[in-house]
Amino acid sequence: MAGLTTGLQLARAGINVLLFEKKKYPFHRVCGEYISLETEGFLKSLLIYPGKFNPPIIKRLQLTSVNGKSAVLPLDMGGFGISRYSFDHFLFDRAKAEGVAIYEDCEVEATHFEDNQFTLKTAQKNFTTDVVIGSFGKRSKIDMQLGRSFIKKRSPYLGVKYHIQTDHEEDLIALHNFRGGYCGISNIEEGKANLCYLTHNDNLKRHQSIKEMEEHVLFRNPFLKSIFKNSTFLFERPETINEISFETKNPVEDHMLMTGDAAGMITPLCGNGMAMAIRASKIVSELAIKFCKDPSYNRLQGRLHASVG
What confidence tens digit (pLDDT) does each residue in 7-65 have? Predict the structure, then answer.
């Protein structure tokens, strides 16, 4: 999300942008799929607020405990719900229409910086560029190549996501706690809900499968048991991601500017990582545009490549 939004802003500033994505749009990601309404004005200013999807507006927060206690609180600013599948694809189409050259099924495998220029290595060919913006998510080959400190440590967290059809109030986001983790549920577009949870890997190790873990651990929270028992699950299998790290990350590595999850993960239970990615895209775009447009850097010829995925 940070990479697509950044690429869009740079292209509108007249900068040539290449964007690399190792997958092919559209696709699902493990994500809470809730965006704070603080982003609304900015997204509308860029003509990328996803209003055509009629995203549900979320104004209340429910917190539940393992033993079934519950509290519902107002969310002063609130947010809206939309799947990454739909929103990323929407941003992808807008970025292409604005002139961003997007390479799908193309992973940047390595980078090299020398004499004020980058070389990006992909399976197809190598690219040279003056600026690289890293927006490759929670962990990638580039993290390993750079030897970033967080990638050297094992992380004990697992993320699991489903899309479901269920009886969940449209304006409510709920965080249901269980031993060693928590599960969020909120509505997204087309009458669906996003069910996404974070858990310690020890929970999975004690059981033979995700399904068994859910039945023995998550179901101890009666709210979660009811959701799992009374919902239609829309995926053949859950989306998962392992080794989620919440270690501090440097915003600049080997002259690359990091943004989104590549620059740092938000603390569990806080949420709003999508809004943070959008905000980060604004910050990094303003810096990159100034760098490329400044007459003292006219040797750049306005070239910039955003590396995503």
Answer: 999 999 999 999 999 999 999 999 999 999 999 999 999 999 999 999 999 999 999 99
pTM for this entry: 0.91
Give the chain's length: 309
Q: How confident is the model at residue 201 (pLDDT cuts 50, 70, 90)?
A: very high
Distance separating alpha carbons of residues 100 and 303, to the nearest angstrom? 12
Residue 267 burial (CB < 10 Å; 0-12/13-18/19+)? exposed
Please state the rounded mean pLDDT for residues 89-112.
96
Q: How far apart are CA 78 and CA 172, in angstroms?
A: 10
CA nearest to 199, candidates 240, 149, 153, 247: 240
Measured distance CA(170)–CA(161) in Å, rounded: 19
- What is the DSSP secondary structure assignment for residue 15, as one 8-state letter? -
Cα Rg of the chain (Å, integer): 20
Q: What residues contact 171, with CB distance under 8 A and at least 6 apart?
A: 56, 57, 58, 59, 60
Token code pair at residue 138? 């929670």
CA atoms within 13 A on the CB side of 69: 2
Q: Enter the tokens of residue 45.
A: 């200013």
216, containing H or E segment:
helix 210-216
Q: Are 200 and 181 in contact (CB under 8 A)?
A: yes
Q: At 123, which amino acid appears?
A: A
Q: Are 136 and 307 in contact (CB under 8 A)?
A: yes
Distance linking the first and last C-alpha atoms of the chain: 11
Q: Classify the C-alpha dihedral 217-74-30-187 as positive or negative.
A: positive
